[in-house]
Amino acid sequence: MLDLAWIREHEEEVREAARRKGMAFQVEELLDADRRRRALVADVEERRRARNMRSEGVARCMREGRKEEAAALQEAGRREGAELAALVPRLAAAEAALRKLLLEAPNLVSPDTPHGASEADNIELARRGAPPEFGFEPLDHVELAERHGLADFARGAKTAGSRSYYLTGMGALLHRAVQQLAVDRLLAAGFELLEVPVMLRGGAFEQTGFFPAGEDQVYALAGEDLRLAGTAEVPLVAYYAGEVLELDRPIRLAAASACFRSEAGSAGRDTRGLYRVHQFAKVEQVVLCRADLGEAEALLQEITGHAASLLEALELPHRVMAVCAGDMSAKTYKQYDLETWMPGRKAYGETHSSSLLLDYQARRAGIRYREADGSLRHAYTLNNTAVASPRILVPLLENHQQEDGSIAIPAALRPYLGGRAKLEAPARS
Prior knowledge:
single chain; alpha+beta; eight-stranded mixed sheet; three-stranded antiparallel sheet; 12 helices; 18 strands; about 40% helix
């Protein structure tokens, strides 16, 4: 959410942000709603002031024995009271309409965010590691998982429908190992680990900018005001909703949680295997800092670096992409994606996303801190995927497959797998 007073003075900047993000949002509609609300507020306040003055006049007339004049004032007061009562619901409706439009207003776009309409317009900033050159015909992760007994897709579909799976044997252990590796590295970097709820009230999604635009991506629990979170970003940011924080230094939070997404709008896309599924696990990093753009930019580089260093530890070729405005969500000011080479796709696939949101979330959630002069300001928030699994298993299996059918395990993961250096080639039947 942007500051309404700021929007009044920067109408063109909001219009440009919506245009660059490809949104149908009309800032003129918001400003019209603001004018209507302010006019109603002025009318209500004036009528309340007049009512109070009339009440004082009635009391004065009664004290002075002017009963007929007091009665006339009371009758006029009743008429005005009825008119005022009729205005109150109109004001409430105007305030609700304005809030709805405020929630739909996009965040600004950083000056260095690329122009563009889709992920095809994202710009590569850096590339680390070269895609492997196989001296044999490589398998994709589905074939590798089935040969090694790492996943059961048929029983997943039987039990839970499309985009569902079981991880089995070493597949389940690899899934847990990459999460724990990510958690340990974040703890070493000074993050505090929280175990978070994944069933959250709708207000938490609104506070963090996932509603109203992303409601179709979220599973709702029938009969309750609870939804399943698609990322721990929601409970981590909402943790401080309505609070005044000490931000002498940034607050760094992490969580490893189950995540759920409906994948609405992705029908027919990535239906094979583990790349795009309804349930997964994610280690998320969230940072809250002072409203200082220089500090926030440095933190964006930091959290993006944590994700990149994890990919390096997993010995996976990857690249850093500057996300264009048209590929960003309404809430995002600046975003990087990390894409990892996936031989089965013969392309890089997005595995991590890193975002700076300025005070967009904190303003919605009421998260503030006190400046040195005693004034209160809304904090800045940032977030990044440390690792998401089982998606990360796609490049992990595909890049490390060997000609003899085995799969090498990167050295960084071996301590979490009993020292195992590889998954042996399955016995031929």
